[in-house]
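task queued by scheduler; priority normal; single chain, no ligands, no partner chains; default sampling; output format set to structure tokens
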Amino acid sequence: MRFDVITIGSATRDTLVKSKGFKIMESGDFATGKALAVELGSKIGVDEVFYGTGGAATNTATTFARQGFKTAFIARVGDDVLGRAVADEMEKEGVGVEWLLRDAGTPTGYSVILEHESGERTILAYRGANEKLRHEDIPWGDIPCAWIYLSSLSGDLGIAEAALEGAGRCGARVIWNPGGSDLALGFSALQPFLKRVNVFIVNQEEASKLLDIPYDDVNAIFKKFDDAIDGIAVMTRGPEGVYASDGTTLWKAGIFPEKKVADRTGAGDAFGSGFVAGLAISNGDVAYALRLGSANATSKVEHMGAKGGLLTRQEFEEDPRWKNLAIEETSL
């Protein structure tokens, strides 16, 4: 069976808790300079609770399925109730679960998302079975597809290597939006793979740390990315928009205004998968891909849960809200 897209990465069961009792405080004890705080020893009232699934492999697969692509995902869950909930939700989205790996000895990954009323949040993440996803467990010869979307690989670069080799055999294109454990390996470890991926996606903080270049030096960041990557490098900037470069053209895009901020969980996955879906739909039109990625992320932020608000192709094409996005193109 041939798929349009196969996503590979993490899968979790999520509980999102929103409360007016959560306070944001300035604190030099944390890298962000801020802390999410509650009163110690007290009982804090909760205003809203949302249960769903998360993890980049399931989030991105949902976007592709809603955009009309025949999609499957590969992740590792426990052989438990939570793992079955992940499989059930994916089947409801029309995503293939043929290669979902079940671990009898390790529970499914679980996240508790503590959300401030502003939409900012702190995530308590138990990776569980996600930590045991290994390249030798994936039946590479049996999964021909047109696109392979890699997300967090738990630091197992053997998955990236095997995916690239498999893509070469079946003519697929490979996208990589690495997770924290992958990026922690450093640029020298990732560099051999970058020439071979078709799209590489990181946020601005990740790019700065990975390349050891000042956060605001966008030109230097893309100079190094363009030297290292033959495909498209994408750097997201949260509410400031996104940059993308194919080595000859640099695109700078804004964002679609948000009607409200309900929950930012999964916004990065929404953008990345929307961007790649846009490339596939438009036969490589980066401006179209930026528009779909940005629309998908904005719609997700306006809804609860990592998959809330992810757009169908009809919703994107027919809603005039998503027709115009400020995009600048510069020749390099």
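post-processing summary
- The chain has one domain: 3-24+46-331.
- The mean pLDDT is 94.
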